[in-house]
Amino acid sequence: MRLLLLWGLNALALFAVTYVMPSIQVSGIGSALIAAFVLGLINTLVRPVLAILTFPITVLTLGVFYLVLNALLFWLASALLPGFAVGGFGSALLGSILYGLIAWALSALIPAKKE
């Protein structure tokens, strides 16, 4: 249940980013849900591999390259999905930062799982 709620909140965060940045567009709620799902898959499967491969560059740039990596993955998701469009790399950079911050803030509203 918590996973479905987080998925919906991530789609809501993506909608919030589209209202702040007109260069990022989502065609509808279905596209936002699919984009949130694909972003989650990319962040779960692809980002760890790329983070390990680009670790030396990340160390040399004192972690700034990690923001570039996030932007590239955000841009990749928009290239894979027809209902999700990002205007360019600058939009992807700012959009990925905003998306991460908004998704983090929304997920903080959900109470932690008790064991």
The structural class is mainly alpha
The N- and C-terminal alpha carbons lie at a distance of 15 Å
**Spatial ordering of strands, largest sheet:** 1-2
Radius of gyration, CA atoms, in whole angstroms: 14 Å
Helix content: over 70%
Domain tally? 1
Shape: globular
Description:
- This protein has 115 residues and is mainly alpha-helical.
- The chain has one domain.
- The chain has five helices and two strands, in the order αβαααβα.
- The chain has helices spanning 2-20, 29-53, 55-60, 64-80, 89-107, and strands spanning 24-26, 84-86.
- It has a two-stranded antiparallel ribbon.
- The longest helix has 25 residues, at 29-53.
- The mean pLDDT is 93.
Secondary-structure map with pairings?
Layout: H1 2-20, E1 24-26, H2 29-53, H3 55-60, H4 64-80, E2 84-86, H5 89-107
Antiparallel strand pairs: 1-2
